Amino acid sequence: MRLLSALDRYVTQLHADGRSAHTIDQYRRYIRFLDEWLRAGRRSRDVRSVTAETLAEFLTSPAARMRPDGQPKREVSVNALRSSLRAFFGYCHAAGYAPRNAGQLIRRARCASPPPRALSETEVRRLMATLKSARGQLARRDELLFLLMLETGIRLGSALALEAGDVDLRQRTLTLRRMKGDRPGRIPVPTRLIHQLAARVRRPSHSSLFQAAGGRVLSARHARRRLGVWLSRAGLGHATPHSLRHTYARLEYARTGDVLAVKRALGHRSLSATAIYADSAF
Length: 282
What we know:
By secondary structure, this protein is mainly α.
């Protein structure tokens, strides 16, 4: 069976297992990456032909170890690739598509988790001042999106999935239809965002709060690019939308000193996922 045919079946299994869209997209991306490497090297792309040695050679190749800009990938990124290969080939063997589990010998590298990336209070003020001084509907959209993430700590995916009907101005709450683990949730709306949100919901209830040109829902990739544009205009270094969530957690812990409060606000299931903010120097 061809690698990509097995991948299609694996994706079906992942859906059946209730795995998140983010996880499924990661498996698709990494297995297709392996398929491209095999094709470029004129190697067999049949799952029965892939061995532990094949995967070891792939994982030590520049294709797997280097970024497109020629810089080495972070070890945590390569670990994600290792985990995806191990799980996929374990499935292929268990499903009877391959006579052996080619990924059985793969191990994750030991590496410390990177500290949370966050903006300082000064950087937040500069970013928001730059957005506020800009003109146009796109600037207003971006200002609300990034301010919402900074004020609530919600993930980018949760913010982009918001529709007008998710905003309850009377109760001052937001219903989050998309969260990690596909668990819906509800959060309070910060007072300073009430007027901006009210302006955004003056459209049909099915309308997305954050739209791109043509009325399409703003994509995560485009949102990342937009943040990069505003950071550059503010004279700030690189950061990602997830850095805004880290910023919220950092400032909330600095304000309260209560790691449990931060845990509840971020929606973490495990306290260990939140403890990194208490261990960081603020």
